[in-house]
Amino acid sequence: MSERPTRTETDSLGSMEIPSHAYWGIHTARAFENFDISKRPISVYPHLIVALASVKQAAARANTELGALNAEKADLIDRACQRVIDGEFHEEFCVGVIQGGAGTSTNMNANEVITNVALEMAGRQKGDYAFISPYDHTNRSQSTNDVYPTAIKIALARSLTDLLDELELLRQSFALKGQEFRHVLKVGRTQLQDAVPMTLGQEFHGFATTLGEDHKRLAETIWLLAEINLGATAIGTGITADPRYASVVVRHLNDITGLKLETAPDLVESTSDAGAFMSFSSALKRSAIKLSKICNDLRLLSSGPQAGFGEINLPAKQAGSSIMPGKVNPVIPEVMNQIAFSVVGADTTVTMAAEGGQLQLNAFEPVIAHSLLQSILWMARGCETLRVNAVDGITANEDRLETMVGTSVGVVTALTPFIGYTAAAALAKTALLTNRNIADLVVEADLMTREEVTKQLSPARLSGLEAITTAIPIIDNGSVATAVGGEATDS
């Protein structure tokens, strides 16, 4: 069996044999040897690949406009970039997501792939770098240190749009359930103890409101990603680039991406600082924690079905046990919880990576990029599965909820404006001892008529949707005490 054909490529460290079919080159090959760690190529984040190609395309156009790059070569690079933007060759972006070198391997992977696509379009052999060079042409006026963070910010902005779309769909799903359950009374809880009544609709509407607020907070973080350091080159001084390059390239990049990017006012500061990534990560963590809390509530509300809360039913998605027949677990909220745990951990990683930079560069942007892009991707997919596989199919156990409300001592709170706190407390004690319906006890004690009790304990009034207007005369404590079996005393 013959070996696959190769081509020889050379860098400052020596020569290597590269598979002839590969669009990547020697720098990518060295990354394979050095960073065989994550087993996950950067192509798992398509937005990052498109962002890298967009930066290279903007650079080619800016260099042509400024006379820094031959028009024929620039056009080939431009068209090669467009093919990558359109979805081709993504599998050739194959360096690992975790790498040393501040992203140099990723930048060189992009340079090599785009260059070899351009060479092929020109009818040349891959590796014919005398005609188009990954360094002198595709990377003209650039450095990893400005290309890479700029591409990360573009990729995050694009990924954030995907997350915001899913978050809004999930918000709508909870809002629809809020409307569906608007008439269903239940017992509210504080500190896991029975509190006053509310409707299940109000609970789900609250979930929707929370997600709506997080949508707004996340959307606001887009400004964190708008300031870029493209044109800074190595450390922010712009060495090897035309003085006009920074302003020209950002104009082209905005045309390509449709974003509103701005050149940082201090390129030295911008090149070394990762604070924007840390702030962005914090916003993601907030949203993840809020989602996880909602999922905790869903798991509690659906617990049972016999020995738990049993207030709602989550769609059954898979067998819950290999030993207990019939058991069904809340697997969809559980996976969202785990995504949140991962996002919290990723936020810590981003924080430490931002702190770990030294002097004019932060070398740890690869793990920042991976942490943030994975968090956004997982959150978006988590929101989708939570919506489709759980929330849309939730049903209410109305009979159980009605029974719980009827026997809940919290209901008596609604009657305190009419019968007084002392009488209400006595009734609550009796209800707890006898497990009887509060309304029945009030009527039997001749404190209110059945009509009056029914009116005040209506879903609209118990849930606060309809304001209580006029109270009936409060019955004196002595009569109440006697009525419920207590001993009357004068106040």
From TrEMBL:
Parts forming coiled coils: 52-79
Fumarate lyase N-terminal domain segment(s): 15-345
Keywords from the UniProt entry: Coiled coil, Lyase
Transmembrane segments: none
Domain of life (superkingdom): Bacteria
Record domain Fumarase C C-terminal: where: 412-462
Pfam family, one: Lyase_1
Keyword match Lyase: yes
CDD domains in alphabetical order: Aspartase
Protein name: Aspartate ammonia-lyase
